[in-house]
Amino acid sequence: MAQKPSSDSPLGLGLDEMMKVNAHNMEALAKSYGSFFERVGKINGETLNFCVERWKEEFEMPTKIAQCHAPEEIAEAYTNFYSKMFSDYNEQARRVMDLVGEVSKEGFPSSQIGQSKENAK
């Protein structure tokens, strides 16, 4: 004779029983997402710090221009500003792509999701 399910759930399992069955999967997901969001946060922090530094330089430009005494000095100030800006953006893109590469390389341990503890070892 078949055992009566412990709940009225269509799966025949109560919430507590489902949590026990899926505890390993939940643990793996929590670790995966925690690490993932930590790395994404690092990318976002890096990007925000970059923006702050670039904005500081942007706000300094009017003062630099006001201190110029000849058109050549203004041209030089703008040339230096834009040259550094392009160099900074290029370097920032490289840093962000390196961080994105880490996220992609590490990924999620999806091969462990759905496996029992014995199979995951």
Q: Care to describe what's here?
A:
With 121 residues, this protein is an all-alpha fold. The chain has a domain of 82 residues. The protein is built from four helices and no strands. The longest helix has 44 residues. It is rod-shaped. The two termini are 36 Å apart.
Strand content: under 5%
The number of helical runs is 4
Q: What is the element string, with H for helices and E for strands?
A: HHHH
Class by alpha and beta content: mainly alpha
Number of strands: 0
Largest sheet: none
Task: State the end-to-end CA separation.
Answer: 36 Å
Proportion of residues in helical segments = over 70%
Mean pLDDT: 79
**Rg, Cα atoms, Å:** 27 Å
Which residues sit in consecutive blocks of at least 5 with pLDDT less than 50? 111-121
Shape: rod-shaped
